[in-house]
Amino acid sequence: MSSLPPGNRGAASEDRARYYLETQGLKTLNRNFRTRRGEIDLVMLDSDTLVFVEVRYRKGDRYGSAAESVTYTKQQRINSAAKQFLLSRKQWCRHPCRFDVVAISGAGPVQIDWIKDAFRPEG
Predict the structure, then answer these.
(1) What pLDDT, on a 0 to 100 scale, did the predictor assign at position 8?
(2) What pTM was computed for the model?
(3) DSSP states of 49-64
(4) DSSP secondary structure letters along the chain
(5) Which range, of 30-39, 51-60, 82-91, averages the lowest pLDDT?
(6) What gap in Å lies between CA 14 and CA 53, rounded to an integer?
(7) Three-class DSSP labels, 15-30
(8) 81 near 40, Cβ under 8 Å?
(9) pLDDT tens digits, residue range 40-57?
C-alpha cells in the first residue's frame, strides 16, 4: 500500500480505513460522531451488526503500535459515544454492536490491520 499523504494524517487514515472496510463489505453510516464524552471515527454496518470503528495511525512503533494506543480510557470514551449514538438514533438500538480497531502503520507503504471485536466495554 502507498504511504499516507502529509498534512492531516488523521483524516487520511480514516479515509483509508473507510475505503478498506467498504471493500470488505461494510457500509458507512456516520463519520466522526462526536459527543462531550468521546468520538467515534466511523460507524458502519456489517451485515446486521452495528460496528463502531476506532482508527489509529502510527508511523513507527517507538511508542507502541497503533493498536496498543487504544487504551482503556480511550475504549471507555468510545463506549460513551456509542451509547449516545444509540440514544440519538433509535433505529439502531436493536442491532447487535461490535467495537473494531483499524490500526494503520508504516512510514512508506502502510499496513492495515483490522481487529474485529477489539474490545468489549464494561456496562
Answers:
(1) 59
(2) 0.88
(3) EEEEEEEEEES-STT-
(4) -PPPPSS-HHHHHHHHHHHHHHHTT-EEEEEEEE-SS-EEEEEEEETTEEEEEEEEEES-STT--TGGGS-HHHHHHHHHHHHHHHHH-GGGTTS-EEEEEEEEE-SSS-EEEEETT------
(5) 51-60
(6) 10
(7) HHHHHHHHHCCCEEEE
(8) yes
(9) 999 999 999 999 999 998
- Domains in the chain, CATH or no CATH each: 9-115 (3.40.1350.10)
Compute how many other C-beta atoms are within 10 angstroms of the C-beta atom of residue 105.
Answer: 17
Letter for the amino acid at 61?
A: D
Sequence-distant (≥ 6) Cβ neighbours of residue 50 within 8 angstroms: 29, 43, 44, 92, 95, 96, 97, 98
Question: Distance between CA 25 and CA 121 in Å, rounded?
Answer: 25
CA angle 116/122/123 to nearest 5° reads: 125
Compute the distance between CA of residue 32 and CA of residue 14 in angstroms, rounded to an integer.
9
58: Cβ–Cβ under 8 A, 6 or more apart, which residues? 64, 65, 66, 69, 103, 104, 105
| Grid coordinates of 23 | 471493500
